[in-house]
Amino acid sequence: MTTSDAYRELMGVPVEDDKEAAQLDIERAQLKSLLDSPDGRAVLWRVLSKCGIYRTTYQADSGAQGFLEGRRSIGLDLLGDIHDADPNAYITIQQEELRKQLEAQEKREKGK
Length: 112
Prior knowledge:
This protein is an all-alpha fold. The chain is built from 5 helices and no strands.
């Protein structure tokens, strides 16, 4: 049982039937192929960053807050899907992005 399946079961949502399970297997395999590629991981990082999964969504304007919360919800769903496809992938993505940031910082400092 995947993390998403366990969550659905906990929330009382029926776990998918065989047809849905087959479709989920296809989607996980597609995501896994993205996760196996450095370019795919970079794209997923950019999408997750734009979703603001680690930022607050509080806004005085409820419409703006709803928009940000919707964006964040998509990011959290994607993060769960990534974890289901490969539990170690997100850590790999974070490490690669940190390495890129450190390399860019070193280049900037050398240019001074």
